[in-house]
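User: Please predict structures.

Assistant: First:
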Amino acid sequence: MSVSPDAIELLDAARRALADEVAPRLSGDARYQVLLAVNAVATAARELSVSGEVAAAQANRVADLLRLDPSDERRANAEALERLLAESIRVGEFDDSPRRDEMLAELRAMTRRTLELTNPKVAARRFGT
């Protein structure tokens, strides 16, 4: 059973109300603050619309890049994986590794996905999405 409206629809309605009804009636700092809220709500809606499968796929790619065993519990924690990847880069694990290009490609893909969520206009200009 689905509940209507869902969270994304509610966020979109709030974003539209703030952008179309509230912001035009304000000026100066108050308008700026409302427009910041509009952008934050839009970002939250985009993040919610991305399925957990996308995050899980990214975590699996990072875990594979780090050569973690499939049974390693760290595979389930995306933040821990990102910290582990950062530490591996920091200590030079990929410097002279045949996996260096794979690591760079994954970092670019992660950056692109983040930019598509947080600033889709810039992502479209940069990547043509």
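Second:
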Amino acid sequence: MSTSKPAGKATGPKSAAGKARSALNALKHGRYSKHPSILAIEDADAFRDLFRTYLAHFNPASLLETRLVQELTHIDWSLTRFRTLETGFLNQTLDLQNSPLAGLPAPADPLQRLCSGLHRSVQESSFAQYLPP
């Protein structure tokens, strides 16, 4: 005989702190334990801190809302990464202006399309109402 509570009587955390800790389980176990948003060279603690910041701000009341906060965190993280890459790319391009390759046409920016798509995703999401105009 099992000593665990029947599913109908099981309860989750009641306090806000307990709910916040429980929401972080998604980053410790299962599909998000090695989050696909975080590259090996990136700071996983910074990603968790960003997630915690969004959790504290939006205070999700359900699993669906917590999932939306996870998606928002992923989108924010990805946009920051792409902006960093874009800056590096543009800096390299500007450095090339003083090189013998200066007369060649500028290379296309493949990151701009992806960054624009991520930005559209945020604008079309239910979180758009919380963004500054």
